[in-house]
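Office hours follow-up: a student asked to see two folded examples consecutively, so here they are.
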Amino acid sequence: MSVPSFTTRFIQGLNNFSEDQYENLRVDSLRTRETIVTVFEQSPDNSDVGAVLQKIDRFILAMELSDWDVSVALNDIEANEAAEVLGASETISQANVVDALVIAQCGLPSTFVPNDPTVETLPMPWIPSPTATEPETEFLEDESERYALGLVVGTLFQLTLSDDDVLCLGTELVGIVDESDVDSNAAQYQQQFQRAFDNCSIGFIVPSE
C-alpha cells in the first residue's frame, strides 16, 4: 500500500473502519510508518516527509493507547483528531511527495503478476513488507489505487493535473511494460512514463536527463 493510499482511507476519519479491519489497520499503519521513516532517513530536510511522519506517529500513539480497538478510539478525542489529520487534503498531498521520493530514489516492485510472466510492468505505489513473498493482486482493479499511482507520478514531475487526467495516467501506467534493467538510470526508467502521458493527451515531455 502506498502512503497516499493509506492516508486517503482516513478521509472519513475512524468511521471508515469496521471491526474486522482492526488488525489490518495496525499492520498497515506500522508498515506505512516504516516506509516514511526510510524516506525520511534519505531526505531528512524535506518538510513534507517530516510532517507526514509526525502525523502518523501521533495516530499510532493514540491507537496504541486504545489497544487498536477502533470502537474504543472513536470515544477518544486525540485518536479522532489524529485520524482526521491523516485524512486531510494537506496530508494526502504531502504523502504524494513521499511516494514520489520513493520512485525517484529506487523505483518500486510490481504489485501484481502480469499476463505475460516474461515481462514486468511499471509498479503500482505499494511497498511490501520484508517478509512478503507473493505480490498482492487485489489492487489492480481498484480505481483509488490507479488514481493514487497517477498522483504519485504527477507529483514526481511537479504537475498540476485534473482528476480525470490523474486517473487516466494511473490506468495507463498499470499497463506499461518495464524494460529497464540494473544498468538503467533514473531518467531511463522515467522515460517509460512518456507513453502514458501521450495516451492521456497530457502535454508533458518526460525529462531525458
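And the second, which I mentioned at the end of office hours:
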Amino acid sequence: MKSYSAYFVRDQAMAKAQQIFGQKVKPLPDTSWLLCAFDPDDEVPDEAILLGEESLTEAKSMELGEIFFVYGDTSVDWFVYEHAIDGKLLRKLVWYTTDDDWNCGWLLAEGEPEAWEAQLFRTDCLTQYLENETQRLKDEGKSEVVASMEAEVRQIWERKQIIAGQSLPLCDGTVAMLVEKNYGINRFNL
C-alpha cells in the first residue's frame, strides 16, 4: 500500500450513498458497512480538511447517518480520520510527516477519543518513544529536561490522549487499516 482513501457508510443508507457517491458504492460482506469512493492511490486531502476548517463527513452524515473516512499513506506516513453521525462530527485526527521525516506529529485532534485509539498506546511504543526522545534531548545538550519530558509523556500515555502538536503516540499510514479492522471491516478478504 502506498496510499488510499475511503468512506464507510452503514448499509441501511445504500440508496442515499448511491446518490452521493454514484457507482462507487460496494457492500462489504459480513459487515453492516458500505465501501464508498474507494481510491487506491489517493492524494492527501486539501489543507482546509487537514487543518479542520472543513469536514469530509459532517455534511454527508446529515443524509447518511453514520459515516467515517480514512486516508492512509505509507510512503510519507500520513493518516486522516473523520467520524460523523447525523450531522455531528464526533472525531477527527490528522497525523503528518514533513519531508525531512523528523518533523511529524498530530496536526489535529478534535472530538472525544474513540475506543480503537487505545491500541496506539502500546507499552513497546512508549518504551521506544522515551528512548528516542531521551537520546534526542541528550544530543541537543538538554539532559536536564529528560526527567520532566518522561513525566509529561507518561501522563499523556496514561490518559491515552492524542493531543494536537504532540508526536505521541507514534502513527503511520497503516493506522487507516487498524481503524477499519476495529469497525469489523477487512477489505482484503473481498
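Two things to take away from it. Residues 8 and 35 are 5 Å apart (CA to CA). The longest strand covers residues 88-97.
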